[in-house]
Amino acid sequence: MTNKRKIINDPVYGFLTIDDDILFDVISHPFFQRQRHIKQLGFTSLVYPGAVHTRLSHMLGALNLMTRALEVLKVKGVDISDEESLGVRLAILLHDVGHGPFSHTSEHTIVDVHHETLTRLFMQRLNVELSTQGHGIHPLDTAIEIFNDTYKKHFLHQLVSSQLDMDRLDYLSRDSFFSGVSEGIVGTERIINMLNVSNDELVVDEKGIYSVEKFIISRRLMYWQVYMHKTVIAADSLLCGLFRRVRELLAKGVPVDGPRFLIDFLSHSYNEASFVDNPELLDHFALIDDNDVMTAVKMWLHHPDIVLSSLASQLVYRHLPAISVSDHPFPSEQIEQMRLLTQRHFGISLSDTEYFVGTGVLKNHAYDFNDQEIKVLYKDGSCCDISEASDQLDRHFLEKQVTKYYFFFPKELK
Amino acid sequence: MTNKRKIINDPVYGFLTIDDDILFDVISHPFFQRQRHIKQLGFTSLVYPGAVHTRLSHMLGALNLMTRALEVLKVKGVDISDEESLGVRLAILLHDVGHGPFSHTSEHTIVDVHHETLTRLFMQRLNVELSTQGHGIHPLDTAIEIFNDTYKKHFLHQLVSSQLDMDRLDYLSRDSFFSGVSEGIVGTERIINMLNVSNDELVVDEKGIYSVEKFIISRRLMYWQVYMHKTVIAADSLLCGLFRRVRELLAKGVPVDGPRFLIDFLSHSYNEASFVDNPELLDHFALIDDNDVMTAVKMWLHHPDIVLSSLASQLVYRHLPAISVSDHPFPSEQIEQMRLLTQRHFGISLSDTEYFVGTGVLKNHAYDFNDQEIKVLYKDGSCCDISEASDQLDRHFLEKQVTKYYFFFPKELK
Amino acid sequence: MTNKRKIINDPVYGFLTIDDDILFDVISHPFFQRQRHIKQLGFTSLVYPGAVHTRLSHMLGALNLMTRALEVLKVKGVDISDEESLGVRLAILLHDVGHGPFSHTSEHTIVDVHHETLTRLFMQRLNVELSTQGHGIHPLDTAIEIFNDTYKKHFLHQLVSSQLDMDRLDYLSRDSFFSGVSEGIVGTERIINMLNVSNDELVVDEKGIYSVEKFIISRRLMYWQVYMHKTVIAADSLLCGLFRRVRELLAKGVPVDGPRFLIDFLSHSYNEASFVDNPELLDHFALIDDNDVMTAVKMWLHHPDIVLSSLASQLVYRHLPAISVSDHPFPSEQIEQMRLLTQRHFGISLSDTEYFVGTGVLKNHAYDFNDQEIKVLYKDGSCCDISEASDQLDRHFLEKQVTKYYFFFPKELK
Amino acid sequence: MTNKRKIINDPVYGFLTIDDDILFDVISHPFFQRQRHIKQLGFTSLVYPGAVHTRLSHMLGALNLMTRALEVLKVKGVDISDEESLGVRLAILLHDVGHGPFSHTSEHTIVDVHHETLTRLFMQRLNVELSTQGHGIHPLDTAIEIFNDTYKKHFLHQLVSSQLDMDRLDYLSRDSFFSGVSEGIVGTERIINMLNVSNDELVVDEKGIYSVEKFIISRRLMYWQVYMHKTVIAADSLLCGLFRRVRELLAKGVPVDGPRFLIDFLSHSYNEASFVDNPELLDHFALIDDNDVMTAVKMWLHHPDIVLSSLASQLVYRHLPAISVSDHPFPSEQIEQMRLLTQRHFGISLSDTEYFVGTGVLKNHAYDFNDQEIKVLYKDGSCCDISEASDQLDRHFLEKQVTKYYFFFPKELK
């Protein structure tokens, strides 16, 4: 540890403290800095105008929570070496470094590689690049093992990725804060104070049950009220359609203008192997962010293809598709009829109406029993699952999966 | 007024309420929506990562404060008709609609027209466009008169533009909030509750003196701590240099890639008359925002001109110029010597070093006696200037102008 | 309405505005001002040191929410006359005026009259007293009818008292705020914005479902985490024991020192009829507050009766009883054994051990189906109960009643 | 240090952590717990109803800030041993333990001993009492030396008592928070992060200049807007009058009812020597708090002495004296005339009118040059006073002393 101590103002927690050289160097790296230009919540700011916070601020926030969680665990006597402490902090700092523009939307469109895989690729590159900068050989080894859950202490991975990890704690707090949806506020500090480790599992002290219940409920509410808001779904569908159309046009040899690397990715179907074979691809990917997407969409406003220019116009001028949400699937006749109407209205082929009319499914359950459980630690040393420990949230409630169906179509045909 | 009532979550005030059809229609217009893509504080988020809030959120916030100010003034018996009330709300809603990307930076580089002039051009266009949408003929007439200070009631203009207007009240609160600099927090609600009108002048009730003092101090602190932060100055200088270089290259006939309308503006020297002569120019300007600038700078990374590509690299990879600030002008020998060093280091001509080495001046006084005064209203009906009314802030303090000089140069030559 | 406009700073909402003379006069009356000396949460501050806020601040806060709720309902076209508006604001302002010291504890000990009955007695007295002060004859008539639910518009009563009234909205926000338990924070402003009236019933617009769910969950969590905290239960039991012992001693003719009116009430068993027969009794009751109780307990530290002085010492020196909580009733043998141990330890009679050893029951369900329902209003005008409208909270969850049993005994015998 | 870790919710900072056994034992001691019943701001809650927070919460808050300040200083390489760390935390925890009811009012009336002297007496007693409880011999020795500024490291004392100590930082934040006066909010966390030590002096890093300026301005504004609010001055004058009258009556042999120890103190003129001679006196003093005072005043409502009962009535029924504030002393004729009017109105002797009519002086300067300076540390290691370092606050501003004169008299004679 050095005597350097950088303090960054953060509206959510007041201050973030960066107190180790390698953390500095990772944060300063272009691979990390690019996250300044990727919004944490993509199109959510169309509904909640304050929610323009970046993925960079989330990654710094998650680091901050990790630092505090480690303090708490150490005071409680959990054995964590300095190397492990730094490793788990690097792991959380970098956990989202693989995200591309409009995060989840781009995952299946710009490049069909999961963002966690990209995170691994970025971490490996950084592990090599930072080796030459006075941090010893492969300074991210422990961080990578923790991220991959191959490190001997499993609970360190759980701090980075589990149902109660520092990632979720930060994003729930941060997304509530910036969206102005106070319903999602989580007692982050209290939960962290209640963390403990038992049998190499991250657990919550008995006194923290209420806070964990609140956390589960808040997550569910944020899911429906913010993350899956109808307007966000509509804008996401639109952007997916735009990318699909550009791919289709490029495949046919129709030229489409746009930032060089974005167009390159839309001209190819890169997969994980492509990145391994061609290391430069990662650098190109790193140069694509939200700015390129929004600039490109404006460029497409004047494209001769009427489907592309119409979709672009809808997004640029916020003339989003209408969207209906239902507890039941929409009948296929209703969809077919809408496609016919759309065909007539826009003067396009029936097959092209799929860019304007479509359906989808949203699923959420409060708590995933298949995922890792949240365990409660009692004073007598015994543990049980939160669903058994809680008076409020029984298995019945937690297991209940909510499924919703949506149907989008041109606003003017509403 | 309609029964429609749109509620928008806002992290600063909780909720914003839009309760009139024409306000809706103005907000929905592309001219207004483009402000979603213009950050209120430009490069400030390089220092304060939370400060990525948009000019759109500021304009909505200022509208919210105006609505509350009007309520307060009406309760105090100030005569304000429904038409005036709507007019002044439209005026504040649109007061910043003329800003281009990176607001103040672009004002002298992308186009040499003051943003207030552009605001007027946008308002006039909206006045015509909205006429045909069921809001009567020229529904912005009153708003435009208030904005131009040609309306008979001067205090309405002061609510939009004066030393204590709704613009400043919102931006100080909002900028403090998102940057996480609590020092700038202003008792907005209290100041608004203390507003009054005397002899057609906006005044502050005697009980509000402390709050106004606090407001003046906060503004000064925000100026130095946030708005004029060294890193922000450095990034602004860099962007200005980039635009100047692109103009120079384009003038020489060297092709420079980039979003069409941005390049068009950098290829010409449009002035106010250009917008009058060619109405389409305003639509083109409206299609340029922060996204285009950031995307373009990334495109310039690979430009053959070494000056352009170096500047682009500095901005994209956040390798900003070093910057020194002093109470005295920097000696010309120091500057000359640095230019020589820079010439050698980059292998460029001496004249091109002006893109990497330069100086500037920052000025601020807490309160501008040449600008409109802030007047305090006593219970006996008499008024005086805040500098006389305040125990804390005497003329000596308020008049004091702080001037600082800065000097920027390549970081590697530090 | 007058032009007077009093603004009171409030840490929860920023500002409270009092804008009518009769509201002023009610607030200034000693019957209202006495609530400055009655803590909203009694002994809760033993656990949450910030939670020393007074019932007066709650009553002002509830008035503030009512004022905002009325604005919202009027904008939505609900017919509410100025007289009704003032009536319902007076009703909420006075809804808790009948509380005595340590509110719920004193209700069964100092005087065996429900606090709502006392509220009615105070309102009737104020109705007479204010008649002579320029507010017309019986200015509280409408307020009293609304409070008693005898007014023709039922929804006005529901704003004062129902499962979603301004009382609960304020106390949940306020208690969370001052206790520092962020888990209890409720989106008050959003809920109020979603209120509506349908068929003379207070309802919530469809868009407010999530906020109501969050409100129900928060209430439940606050119940267990704050209101029914073990330490609070222990201190309440202790105070009840103290009052019972004083009554017992006074009944036996043993003199007990203390503030005159407090001792008077503990010497008698006044009921509702006593207040009707002897109007002065209400004035005497109005002179007893938390200060008297805490001062009296300190006086009892030196009383010759060992039971009384021991109980007083436990409370004054915060040497509270130990308390166990269980999902099942405690076996009677366990209780008997503890009473024997206590008898020996303190050298007191077996019957007197009931002051040191005892049991009790705590019950809560999130939502009371027997109480008035929370109804959701759909866009098509139809209504249904929140338990049907919510995806999250089904009847199963809402009906679930949690019952806990507690057992308290001397700490030293733990 | 133990593994015990007590977490207390605090609305200002979120959580307070107590992590050492002796801190626990000090906090649990009746001498400390009595501060639950002493409001931090006395009668200020008459104006700001939220400001009922206790001195106990302030003392815990100041401990919290101290813990954070020590962390910062240690990271910056300041040499602080574990013993010193604990000592300075005990010193700040106990710095206000000597306050009596209504703090500053009681200092000159209930007992004429400065509260710092009483703090020393309490610390010495605790030093002895805690010796026998497993904390070693005289565990408060270091704390007492630091408090008395006899410890070798002067900066530790400055953390407890100086122009920028943890006491002031906490009370400004806390008082702003609970009063709802956002103007007083101070960037506590930033200031603490900027603390440093140079030549055994507590200093502020150069980057903290703006925050210190803001702190000085906030303090000044809080002084006039909150601490010296007219209503607070009026109530304080009234309580002083009440105590003086009770003393006068008791001296004449007229019996006055009230809590035993309060009456004892009002019957005698105890000084520091009395506490030394009679150790029990400290225990008696420790049993007097705000509750006793408010209960006693209610008892005096019915006292036969008309002066006493009138004063009591004014305070209980909040019928406070009128108060005028002026920049100049009030002319003696005005005062004399008011005393004559008062004599006639109440039918009392002219000399007794001094209880109803009187004057006083209020003084404040933002920064006391006679007191310890706030020093700024530059990167080159040099130091200078904030008045030289600041662009905003020059000596002229800082030295300016504001003096105000007040005149109180019966409200009915206004």
Give me the secondary-structure topology:
4 copies of one chain form a homotetramer.
Chain A: E1 6-10, E2 14-18, H1 21-28, H2 30-33, H3 55-75, H4 82-94, H5 103-107, H6 115-131, H7 141-148, H8 154-160, H9 166-179, H10 188-194, E3 195-198, E4 201-205, H11 209-227, H12 230-251, H13 260-267, H14 272-277, H15 280-285, H16 290-300, H17 306-316, E5 322-326, H18 332-346, E6 358-365, E7 375-377, E8 383-385, H19 386-389, H20 395-399, E9 401-409
Parallel strand pairs in A: 4-7
Antiparallel strand pairs in A: 1-2, 3-4, 5-9, 6-9, 7-8
Helix pairs in contact in A: 3-4, 3-9, 3-10, 4-7, 4-8, 6-7, 9-11, 12-17, 16-17
Keyword list:
homotetramer, 414 residues, alpha+beta, Hypothetical protein af1432, Growth Hormone, Chain: A, 2 domains, four-stranded mixed beta sheet, 11% strand
